[in-house]
Amino acid sequence: MLFVLDIGNTNMVLGVFEKNTLKYEWRIKTDPRKTEDEFAMLIKSLFDWKGITFDDISGIIISSVVPPIMTSLEKMCLSYFDIEPVIITKEISQAHLKINYSNPGEIGADRIVNAVAAIEEYGAPLIIIDFGTATTYCFINEDKEYCGGIITPGMNISMEALYRYASKLPKVEIEDPQQVVGTSTVEAMQSGVYYGTIGMVDGLVNQIKAEQNVSAKVIATGGLSKLIATDSKTIDIVDTQLTLKGLNLIYSNLTGNQ
Asked: Has residue 256 got a pLDDT over 80?
């Protein structure tokens, strides 16, 4: 079995593949303060629930945009799994994806992994939207080259900013408010973030297509992708497992394990 870890700023998404099939998936809070032992015990509890042991894992691959967490995770892999993990680096990225970008080292590991998986599964050209801590847009041209994209504040950041910097506004959950015009402060905030994000997504996607003069397929991933896709007019496919699939694909290509 292959253990894959996608470390984001807010959440860690973990998965276990068996013969290229994603068997199990978990989402936990990212905490760079945890030690290798704490991570190991947390993962053991998740594995125990599904009847998996550390000995069942034959390989580990990690993509991360949180450098401070990596020392603990690498130590955990060595101490508890007796496995040296594959880490998505600039060198690995460039070996698996054609990059037409001024500084490839600036591209987040998750964006690279998403692109590898999306090209394999959906072809090109593509626009990949990842709804995470930040909302990122990546453009892949018809030659399957990563050409760049857009980074905007994520929905949770936007909602948190309203609560933090406007003294009279409450802290509310993100959800579909059902109508644009809110009849309460909570509904008005939810509408602003929800419909504001949809308007931004559709507007930016249309601008990318016009600027690049392509009819690209639009793939959405990330925790809030299903919510936004409900009313978006430009999202074609929602694939919440895109990053995990990309990690599995890169590991398979590196090791020859299919």
From this structure: no
Handedness of CA 27, 28, 31, 34 (dihedral sign): negative
φ, ψ of residue 22 to 5 degrees: the values are -75, 110
Q: Is the pLDDT of residue 131 over 90?
A: yes
86 near 254, Cβ under 8 Å?
A: yes
Pairwise CA distance, residues 212 & 43, whole Å: 43
**pLDDT at residue 243 tops 80:** yes
- Pure H helices in the chain: 36-50, 70-76, 90-96, 109-122, 155-165, 185-212, 225-229, 242-255
E strands present in 8-70: 11-18, 21-29, 59-64
Q: Which residues are catalytic?
A: 110
Closest CA to 154 of 5, 10, 7, 42: 10
Give 165's pLDDT tier (boundaries 50, 70, 90).
Answer: confident
> Tokens 């009849």 appear where?
183
CB 202 within 8 A of CB 234: yes
Distances in Å between the alpha carbon of 253 and those of 91, 125, 187, 247, 258? 14, 22, 48, 10, 8
CA distance 48 to 88: 27
Numbers of helices and strands, H then E, in the chain:
8, 11
pTM, 2 dp: 0.90
